[in-house]
Amino acid sequence: MTHATPVRREARTGHLTLALHLAAMGLPVLPLRAGKGPIGNCRTCADNACGGRPNMKTPGPCACPRPCHAWAAATTDPSILTSPAWATAWRDAGVVGYHPGGAGVTVVDLDDAAAVNWARENLPPTRTVATTRGEHWIYRGAMRSVNGVRPGVDLKSTMSYARWLGPGTGALADLPEAVRALAEKAPTTVRPAPCTVTVPAPGGGGPCRHRSPAYLERGIAMGEQRITEAVSGVHATVYRTFLAVLSVHGRCGCLTEAHIGRLFTAAQAKGETLRHCTDAWSNAATTLGM
């Protein structure tokens, strides 16, 4: 415990130093949480209550000085990156992220070996960066971001963020029509895998405290609606919805695979992959100590 503070300070300093270096090269950067997600909205900006987010196609702009607007918070301004409003975010950051579209590039996120093999057979060579399970192929040129354009393949560019995993290898090639064409195809439809949620039984083994199935049905329907109506920040919306459902219904044992499947289906209809849904559900359960 005596080393916790120095280690945290060292991590914060390292992330900030890297961020300033990348910003100086023209890469808009932002801190990401240890779970690789963006910093959650502050109370003022929660549920878009602030009226808009910088650079997003919603009313605004928002004048919030915090890095709580996902990709839209990414900046190259060193005075913002080093401001007191960002200090806590750098302290708690797990990794440095960046806005590919803001840097004029597109990241083809290849999530596994099969996706990498597909890219090698179908896409022109470009700069590549190794990830935990696959690779990022980076092309010069921005386009709209789309998840699940084919199994294991996401496109990250405008209105999206990516982890900085290093400069990569190879020459940066121009964005090919083959990648642009992927965004014009309907996202891959993946049926949610059976999902079993193991949660503690209510104290004393009594019945569900909600007493009426209608209460649960209303909660699931509201969750579906919230995800479906999201016009931006889909990742964050899905996570917050999963968190809200689990916080109310996760410990009484009333959730079924069918309920979870409905939420996953709504998220996938907005372009989320099954992996993203599964990760968001798992992260929400972990946050709640389940």
Verbal overview:
The protein has helices at 4-24, 78-81, 84-92, 113-122, 177-184, 213-228, 234-249, 257-269, 274-287, and strands spanning 29-32, 95-98, 105-110, 127-130, 135-140, 146-150, 153-156, 162-163, 173-174. The chain is α+β, with helices and mostly antiparallel strands and 290 residues long. Strands 3, 4, 5, 6, 7 and 9 form a six-stranded mixed β-sheet that branches. Helix 1 (4-24) packs across helix 3, helix 6 packs antiparallel against helix 7 and helix 6 (213-228) runs parallel beside helix 8 (257-269). The chain is globular. Mean pLDDT is 80; it is low at 1-11 and 186-206.
List the helices and strands and how they pair.
Layout: H1 4-24, E1 29-32, H2 78-81, H3 84-92, E2 95-98, E3 105-110, H4 113-122, E4 127-130, E5 135-140, E6 146-150, E7 153-156, E8 162-163, E9 173-174, H5 177-184, H6 213-228, H7 234-249, H8 257-269, H9 274-287
Parallel strand pairs: 5-9
Antiparallel strand pairs: 1-2, 2-8, 3-5, 3-7, 4-5, 6-7
Helix pairs in contact: 1-3, 6-7, 6-8, 7-9
- The structure class reads alpha+beta
Uncertain runs:
1-11, 186-206
Largest sheet: 6 strands, mixed
Order of helices and strands: HEHHEEHEEEEEEHHHHH
**Strand portion, in percent?**
5-15%
Count of helical regions: 9
Please, what is the oligomeric state?
A: single chain
Q: Quick one: how many beta strands?
A: 9
How far apart lie the N and C ends? 25 Å
Radius of gyration of CA atoms, rounded to a whole number: 20 Å
Q: Share of helix among residues? A: 25-40%
From the spread of the alpha carbons, the general shape counts as globular
